[in-house]
């Protein structure tokens, strides 16, 4: 059938094995009596509009099998392969050796990465719709990387979020190339069969899908291909390896034809618009080479396209609808609010259908009555008229029903499709001719913006962002490393995301009733776009060790809800106290390409901050996020044959002006974000120990770390192989207790260290075992307990006594030898050193209250003349980082500087810089304990 023929309904044959013959336009044929054939005639009545069938074009294989006949050798498609240059290497394209029963199948190899893609379509067309029935599924087989899934079920199940993103990358550039009027369901399946860890399969899957569709029977306008562009230094790289992408400033995926751009999606770190245009130009050149080679392959082994299956509404129907509803459409499209405008258009559509039905152009039934020619029709036989008024149907006799001859021309589905197209045409004409959009704005004008921070009192951060009739509620939650999102992909199953944004679009946001369930592909795609836009402004993990989760719930939608999530998410991060580098805004751009059709000068008309109707009726949806200096994320979908670089440049520059305006409005947020961590957010303390001592914290089977958590009351203790320890708790006292235990567990004793107030754990005939730190004991031999002779330790000590000891030796096995005698005055010497008589003048400072736990340190002061002085620590608001006392304190502990992320800055002691002294920090401080162990010398922490 011709491409511009009228779509009409056909009945489904009772026997699905029988194929109808192709016929010319017979949808308006009147009721006729069937002809006889072989003593029996068949008459088929149309039962319902939903029962349709189409005729697929016979492929070369089907023709060959028909010629060969039954019992002959089966037709086998010949394999073809071609090598195509892409960047600095080649990809191998093979077809005809795998999946030969599919309408189109191809495998594409890059390095040792192989992507296999098939295209199949249904024999029977589905109901007409303005949305092409295309279904894309992409899956990464774990066997491709030589491993299995990390989950309980080792079989691949529901596709993961990053696979959904690749499905969208495949779908978005293919959909504009599908011809209108083709309603056969088309399914694209893509699998990663082999992955070498260097060549990414996602951009390869776009090219594989474009080649498979080009080889299949699906009618398309042009062949598409896709590539990734990276920027390493000042050089753009086509399809960079994963190692090259680690140092790339740009991650751009672009798809298009040999002459136009259809889709781009990219993320960068505040890259200027000029650099983006250069990257797009490099990608367009690479795509052009691929498409030219694919076209040559299609000429050799491609299947004939099903152009005869295209069914378009008749052109007369456009004229009828414009005459009936044209004047009212002009008025209704000027309604500013979305819901009243939508209801008015829906009411007008029903009225148009009713008027056409009354005039006899549309049937009130589901489909117009229609009789197909009988299946085995013989043109030479004449019609047989039965005199008694019955039609001979063999065993069945059907009496004819008189029918009124009315011009039943159109189906109701045709009317709805044409009405939508006419409405879009009138909207585009209003924008081009009148210079005003549906809500009264000019093409560059931004809707009214209003934002409120700190909306939810118990949330760590929140913002309600409103732009026109689009509204998003962004909520930020801070947590420890255990809240991070674990990724299970081809690379590894241990990848953690410390920042993620989750987007939800409930049906109530557009005033509709719908099913609530798992997030749709659109929700996943919009969420990742907003996430990647905000990611460059986040601090590093060393600066801010929290895991950050942003939830964006769309409360009201009329265009650009993903960009509203970017704006609202940025303010919510500030409200949560996240030290972001700058503010980020997002805007969606639209376009009317063919302005000459509506009285314009022919140049494209770019629209800023588009609404939902402008997105549906326009030719482009271009989302751009960033600040005044550059872009962090962008995504473009084209609904026409593609755009040029000149159009894209104009859209980027206009988007930059729009972002500046939005950022200025965001700065007027009332009330402004708090910019401080909520009191309900957890505290995280980060400390560093020696990597070989991490196991001491964990213990056998995790028993030790669990006991520390139970004893101190902290929420979690997270350890890493590099020695980083993160303690998460609700209050500072519990964190200090756990910190002290961990430091004592991991400290590195050195000869000469003095430990005060240590408990005797065990007495033996040869000495006493003394605990110098939790879990760390040493032997004080009986000869080192006293200057006096002891027959046995029990004569002077008992278990539980506390003594001061000094470390005098560490043997090869790491065992500690302690001495109490070394700290006592030598009674045999007549001239005892006064300093030794006082135990080397070590004094302790008491802790005043639990709230001052973090603000006090143990101090040992020795004056220049050798005499000892007692001195209480003095407090200062914030000592300078380079002060002498700070450096000595750090050297005495031999540890990495500690950081506690708390809501307010605690005071720390300051000391007289003119005095010579040694300072030792003892972390085992508890508000209920007045005396603590003091180390004279160095008690190094791992």
From TrEMBL:
It is found in: Plastid, Chloroplast. It holds the Pfam family S1. It comes from Kalanchoe fedtschenkoi. InterPro entries: ExoRNase_PH_dom1, ExoRNase_PH_dom2, ExoRNase_PH_dom2_sf, KH_dom, KH_dom_type_1, KH_dom_type_1_sf, NA-bd_OB-fold, PNPase. GO terms for biological process: carotene biosynthetic process; cellular response to phosphate starvation; chlorophyll biosynthetic process; chloroplast RNA processing; mitochondrial mRNA catabolic process; mitochondrial RNA 3'-end processing; mRNA processing; negative regulation of isopentenyl diphosphate biosynthetic process, methylerythritol 4-phosphate pathway. Belongs to the polyribonucleotide nucleotidyltransferase family. SMART domains: KH (SM00322), S1 (SM00316). HAMAP family: PNPase. Signal peptide: none annotated. Residues 27-39 have a biased composition (Basic residues). The lineage of its organism: Eukaryota, Viridiplantae, Streptophyta, Embryophyta, Tracheophyta. Its EC number is 2.7.7.8. The keyword tRNA processing applies. Keywords: Chloroplast, Exonuclease, Hydrolase, mRNA processing, Nuclease, Nucleotidyltransferase, Plastid, RNA-binding, rRNA processing, Transferase, Transit peptide, tRNA processing. This is polyribonucleotide nucleotidyltransferase. Residues 752-821 form the S1 motif domain. Residues 1-39, 821-844, 861-917 are annotated as: Disordered. Residues 835-844 have a biased composition (Polar residues). One of its GO terms (molecular function) is mRNA binding. It comes from the Eukaryota. The keyword Hydrolase applies.
């Amino acid at each position: 059938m011709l491409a511009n023929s009228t779509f009409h309904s056909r009945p489904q044959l009772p026997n699905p094995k029988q194929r109808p013959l192709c016929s010319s336009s017979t949808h308006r044929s009147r009721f006729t009596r069937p002809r006889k054939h072989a003593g029996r005639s068949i008459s088929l009545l149309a039962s319902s509009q939903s029962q349709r069938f189409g005729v697929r074009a016979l492929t070369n294989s089907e023709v060959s099998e028909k010629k060969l006949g039954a019992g002959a050798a089966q037709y086998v498609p010949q394999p073809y392969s071609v090598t195509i240059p892409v960047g600095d290497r080649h990809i191998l394209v093979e077809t005809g050796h795998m999946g030969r029963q599919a309408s189109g199948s191809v495998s594409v190899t890059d390095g040792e990465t192989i992507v296999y893609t098939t295209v199949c379509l249904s024999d029977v067309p589905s109901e007409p719709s303005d949305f092409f029935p295309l279904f894309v599924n992409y899956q990464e087989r774990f066997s491709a990387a030589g491993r299995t899934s990390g989950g309980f079920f080792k079989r691949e199940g529901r596709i993961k979020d990053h696979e959904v993103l690749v499905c969208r990358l495949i779908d978005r550039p293919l959909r504009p190339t599908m011809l209108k009027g083709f309603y056969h369901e088309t399914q694209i399946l893509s699998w990663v069969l082999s992955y070498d860890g260097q060549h990414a399969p996602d951009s390869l899957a776009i090219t594989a899908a474009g080649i498979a569709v080009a080889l299949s029977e699906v009618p398309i306008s042009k062949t598409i291909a896709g590539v990734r562009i990276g920027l390493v230094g000042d050089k753009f790289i086509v399809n960079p390896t994963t190692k090259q992408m680690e140092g790339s400033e740009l991650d751009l995926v672009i798809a298009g034809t040999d002459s136009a751009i259809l889709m781009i999606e990219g993320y960068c770190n505040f890259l200027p618009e000029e650099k983006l245009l250069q990257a797009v130009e490099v990608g367009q050149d690479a795509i052009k080479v691929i498409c030219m080679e694919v076209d040559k392959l299609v000429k050799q082994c491609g299947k004939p396209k099903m152009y005869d299956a295209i069914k378009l509404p008749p052109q007369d129907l456009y004229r009828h609808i414009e005459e009936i509803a044209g004047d009212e459409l002009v008025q209704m499209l000027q309604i500013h609010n979305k819901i009243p405008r939508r209801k008015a258009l829906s009411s007008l559509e029903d009225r148009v259908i009713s008027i056409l039905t009354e005039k006899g152009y549309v049937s009130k039934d589901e489909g117009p009555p229609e009789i197909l020619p009988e299946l085995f029709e013989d043109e030479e036989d004449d019609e047989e008229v039965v005199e008694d008024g019955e039609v001979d149907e063999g065993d069945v006799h059907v009496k004819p029903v008189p029918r009124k001859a009315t011009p039943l021309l159109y189906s109701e589905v045709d009317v709805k499709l044409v009405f939508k197209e006419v409405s879009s045409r009138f909207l585009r004409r209003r924008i081009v001719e009148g210079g005003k959009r549906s809500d009264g704005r000019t093409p560059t004008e931004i809707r009214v913006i209003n934002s409120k921070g700190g909306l939810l009192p118990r949330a760590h951060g929140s913002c309600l962002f409103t732009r026109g009739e689009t509204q998003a509620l962004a909520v930020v939650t801070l947590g420890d490393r255990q809240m991070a999102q674990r990724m299970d992909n081809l690379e590894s199953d241990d990848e953690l995301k410390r920042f993620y944004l989750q987007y939800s679009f409930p049906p109530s946001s557009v005033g509709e009733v719908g099913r609530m369930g798992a997030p749709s592909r659109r929700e996943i795609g919009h969420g990742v776009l907003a996430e990647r836009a905000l990611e460059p402004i986040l601090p590093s993990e060393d600066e801010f060790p929290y895991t950050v989760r942003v939830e964006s719930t769309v409360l009201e939608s009329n265009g650009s809800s993903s960009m509203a999530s970017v704006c609202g998410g940025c303010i919510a991060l500030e409200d949560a106290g996240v030290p972001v580098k700058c503010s980020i805004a997002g805007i969606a751009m639209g376009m009317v390409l063919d302005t000459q059709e509506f009285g314009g000068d022919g140049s494209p008309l770019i629209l800023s901050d588009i609404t939902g109707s402008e997105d549906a009726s326009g030719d482009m949806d271009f989302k751009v996020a960033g600040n005044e200096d550059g872009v962090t994320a962008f995504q473009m979908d084209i609904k026409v044959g593609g755009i040029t670089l000149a159009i894209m440049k104009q859209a980027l520059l206009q988007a930059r002006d729009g972002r500046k305006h939005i950022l200025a409005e965001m700065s007027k947020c009332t009330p402004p974000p708090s910019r401080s961590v909520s009191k309900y957010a957890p505290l995280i303390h980060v400390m560093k120990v020696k990597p070989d001592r991490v196991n001491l914290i964990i213990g056998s089977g995790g028993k030790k770390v669990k006991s520390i958590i139970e004893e101190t009351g902290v929420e979690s203790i997270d350890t890493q192989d590099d020695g980083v320890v993160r303690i998460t708790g609700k209050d500072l006292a519990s964190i200090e207790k756990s910190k002290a235990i961990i430091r004592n567990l991991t400290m590195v004793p050195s000869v000469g260290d003095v430990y005060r107030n240590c408990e005797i754990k065990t007495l033996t005939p040869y000495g006493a075992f003394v605990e110098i730190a939790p879990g760390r004991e040493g032997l004080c031999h009986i000869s080192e307990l006293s200057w006096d002779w002891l027959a046995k330790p029990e004569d002077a000590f008992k278990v539980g006594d506390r003594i001061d000891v000094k470390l005098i030796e560490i043997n090869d096995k790491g065992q500690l030898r302690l001495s109490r005698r070394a700290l006592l005055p030598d009674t045999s010497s007549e001239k005892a050193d006064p300093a030794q008589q006082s135990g080397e003048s070590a004094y302790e400072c008491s802790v005043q209250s639990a709230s001052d736990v973090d603000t006090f340190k143990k101090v040992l002061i020795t004056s220049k003349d050798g005499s000892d002085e007692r001195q209480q620590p003095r407090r200062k608001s914030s000592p300078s980082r380079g002060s002498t006392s700070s450096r000595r304190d750090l050297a005495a502990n031999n540890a990495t500087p500690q950081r506690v992320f708390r809501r307010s800055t605690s005071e720390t002691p300051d000391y007289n810089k003119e005095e010579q002294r040694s300072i030792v920090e003892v972390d085992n401080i508890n508000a209920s304990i007045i005396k603590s162990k003091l180390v004279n010398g160095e008690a190094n922490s791992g």
